[in-house]
Write a structure and sequence with these properties.
By secondary structure, the chain is an alpha+beta fold. The chain has one domain. Helix content is 38%, strand content 29%. It has 6 helices and 7 strands. The chain has a 5-stranded antiparallel sheet. Helix 1 packs antiparallel against helix 2.
């Protein structure tokens, strides 16, 4: 359980800033791609941990992220082919999809497929193609990097100013409600 949330949120701010920098990055070596995956994984883990520890407001915890879901087209991603997304998923077809903040985190944390989408000339990070080990046979999500950064910043800057706790009976679970004054403000 997280006692103090500020170190986690400060790290999320740092990671959001690092992702902003990667939007301008021109050279992408394997080390850069690995580092990106580690940063995004840690950010998703931190966000999920903060949600589960009741360290973000209900408004932020209930946020959703828009994605595009590309259908699988045959073979299932495996150890040998996970990076060949154009052969496993129909990248010309997609349907709009929304995931809760926690679902997004789980896709990242349990990602079997994690491929950055780079702009023209293999530079500038524009998005992420991700599919969890549970989702890989059904489809591939595309997340715009701007939306990912906005989510991380929302969690990092969220400040709970009011909390109420209620238990309906002695053997009943505790219901926690958290409110923030920061949502929608920068």
């Amino acid at each position: 359980m997280i006692w103090e949330s500020w170190p986690w949120k400060r790290e999320l701010s740092r990671l959001a800033l690092a992702l902003r920098g990667r939007m301008k990055q021109k050279r992408w070596h394997q080390t850069s791609i690995s580092r990106l995956e580690m940063e995004v994984f840690y950010a998703a883990y931190a966000v999920r941990k903060l949600i589960e520890a009741f360290k973000v407001s209900d408004d932020v915890a209930s946020m959703r992220i828009n994605a595009a879901k590309h259908p699988a087209i045959g073979r299932v991603a495996d150890l040998m082919n996970w990076h060949q997304i154009d052969q496993l998923y129909d990248l010309s077809e997609s349907e709009p999809w929304q995931l809760s903040l926690k679902e997004f985190c789980n896709q990242i944390i349990h990602s079997f497929v994690f491929v950055p989408c780079l702009g023209e000339g293999r530079s500038n990070l524009v998005g992420l193609f991700v599919s969890s080990d549970h989702q890989r046979a059904r489809g591939l999500f595309y997340f715009d990097i701007d939306l990912v950064i906005q989510l991380l910043e929302a969690v990092a800057h969220d400040d709970i100013v009011c909390m109420s706790l209620k238990r309906d009976g002695i053997d009943q679970p505790l219901k926690v409600t958290r409110k923030s004054c920061k949502l929608g403000k920068k």
